Amino acid sequence: MSSSSDRRPSVLVVDDSALMRRVLSDVLAAGGKDAPDGEFRVVGTARDGFDAVRKVHQFDPDVVTMDLEMPELDGLGAIGYIMSELPRPIVVVSAHAGPGTGAAIRALELGAMEIVAKPHDANRKSLERMGPDLRAALRRALAADVSHVSVMARPPVPARRAPEAGLRARARLAVAVAASTGGPRALAEVIPKLATGRGAAVLVVQHMPPGFTRSLAERLDSLSALRVVEADHGTPIVADTAYVAPGDYHMRVLPATDGPTIALDQEPPVWGVRPAADPLFRSVAQVFGANSLGVVLTGMGRDGAEGVRAIRSAGGGGIAQDRGSSVIAGMPTAAVQIGGVESVLPLAEIAQRIDAELAVRGARAREGRS
């Protein structure tokens, strides 16, 4: 164990696999090209949820990496205990196939900050390749303010959705949403509260690894009056539907003779991420103009700031989450500083403002004054 004078962030590694515990510990202790001197120090490891809770009390780590599928007490149970007793940043390290993806989304709702995907083939070389992603996730988690995470958050009550009535009309209005660290909890607060019948579509960029965005969409869909789907290339953009950008793909909207459609691509990352919000927001500004809103939620960095300013310049509206309710206020603060928003609101008030803005802009569109 490192000496008490070592100022590097301390990490507790939790996983039921001895190989995984050893490799993650080695990767964090040894560092890499992004952290050649070993940016973190591993103060302990735990084999299951009960062991994790004990070790959190024993070592008081700055951050925890958490497996989800473990015997005795699983990762979700451990996250609940830790966030209620001794809150601290938690990074989920989970399989990106099967039930692990759905559990990872629930972990984010309970208070975990980030997800890192385990490789399909769990050999040492493959595990070591996840080192840069893991270290980057730990940095983002450590920048989060866990005091803004409510204790033992209960899932929102699923919305009652009206039966499908044939084909949905093409959307006349668009809401573009950007989110990163803390975003899945914020989206679960906003998306389920949005009303239908506004003629609007919602387009969401959540910074998240490939393999998890479909589960995020399914989770939001189960809670919302809106239909929520992971976006597919070429899909028509229809009203009362929210589209979540797939992990590792930028999402844009394109004009078409019979209405805007979704376009996905793997062009280079923007601000170091793919999907990124700025490409989406700029395309929304071009296609929907004054009939659009940009919303920038919690997250590190400045993705979405330039995009929401483009929406404002096109006559649309801009909303940012306030610092007091953001897990990390970097993205919304950048949007405010660049002059892209007109409203800065607590998370709990954002859905209501979106609905009010859509009502006004929808009326203008119907009157032909958009």
List the helices and strands and how they pair.
Blueprint: E1 10-14, H1 18-30, E2 41-46, H2 49-59, E3 63-66, H3 75-85, E4 90-95, H4 99-110, E5 114-118, H5 124-129, H6 131-142, E6 173-179, H7 183-190, E7 200-206, H8 213-223, E8 227-230, E9 241-244, E10 250-254, E11 261-265, H9 277-288, E12 292-296, H10 305-313, E13 317-321, H11 330-337, E14 343-345, H12 347-366
Parallel strand pairs: 1-2, 1-3, 3-4, 4-5, 6-7, 6-12, 7-9, 8-9, 12-13, 13-14
Antiparallel strand pairs: 10-11
Task: Characterise this structure.
The chain is an alpha/beta fold. The model has no long low-confidence stretch (mean pLDDT 90). It has 12 helices and 14 strands. α7 links the parallel β6 and β7. The strands form 3 sheets. It has a 7-stranded parallel beta sheet, sandwiched between helices. A 5-stranded parallel beta sheet has the order 2-1-3-4-5, with helices on both faces. 36% of the residues lie in helices and 19% in strands.
Estimated radius of gyration: 21 Å
Mean pLDDT: 90
* Main beta-sheet annotation: 7 strands, parallel
The N- and C-terminal alpha carbons lie at a distance of 64 Å
Oligomer: single chain
Helical residues, percent: 25-40%
Number of E strands: 14
Element order: H for helix, E for strand: EHEHEHEHEHHEHEHEEEEHEHEHEH
- The side-by-side strand order for the widest beta sheet comes to 8-9-7-6-12-13-14
Question: How large is the count of helical segments?
Answer: 12
Secondary structure category: alpha/beta
Beta strand %: 15-25%
Given as residue ranges, the uncertain stretches (5+ residues, pLDDT < 50) are none
Using the alpha-carbon principal axes, give the shape.
elongated
